[in-house]
């Protein structure tokens, strides 16, 4: 059963997490949302992010923000680290080669891109596609937390190290956490813990396209399918 989508007082609670980045700042004022109006809530959050995000409103290495995409009421949410060059150009998360690989992963689960929600820790492209820095994550990350609170997925899949470190509040590397179930705990009073399954980022999978890494990612996806009650192919 999906967690109850009660009205959210996100401004007061967005960063009151059981697991959160050190010294993180909350995202800012938010209007409580109607439980059945997730799309409108997400649109309002996007507008506020683009106007107020301490990182994205001061960063200069991007042409536009890349907020998120998909079903705001999805049972499954994927979280990556930051937009790349193609995402920056199109304004959509996970396009280009890594995006094609993520879509392939989603289709292998018997789902379509439109049936899940996809977002990144950072909403603007870092210079030269570098890994997000801690101060950037702390400034922009609270808006991702608010996205999760709107979607209320049954499962979160974190793609790569930066997303996993933010959601689980850990410094442990992705190779040690990959494939191991964990939980993200919403701020007090804002719902039940959400299962989290870390796996490799599609870009890493493309760089290390071996039978071992492909098999590990497929094992991870099958765990998610089992948790969601999705039928395995074949």
Written description of the protein model:
This protein starts with 9 loop residues before the first helix and ends in a 6-residue tail after the last helix. With 234 residues, the chain is α/β, with parallel strands linked by helices. The protein is globular, with a radius of gyration of 16 Å. It has a single domain (36-228), classed as Uracil-DNA Glycosylase, subunit E (3-Layer(aba) Sandwich). The longest helix has 18 residues, at 134-151. Mean pLDDT is 86; it is low at 1-33. Helices cover 39% and strands 11% of the residues. Helix 2 runs antiparallel to helix 5 (134-151). A 6-stranded mixed β-sheet has the order 1-3-2-4-6-5, with helices on both faces. It is built from 9 helices and 6 strands.
Distance between the termini: 26 Å
CATH class designation: Alpha Beta
Low-confidence segments, ≥5 residues, pLDDT <50?
1-33
Structural class: alpha/beta
Total number of domains: 1
Mean pLDDT: 86
Proportion in helices: 25-40%
> DSSP strand (E) fraction?
5-15%
CATH architecture identity: 3-Layer(aba) Sandwich
Number of helices: 9
Order of strands, widest sheet: 1-3-2-4-6-5
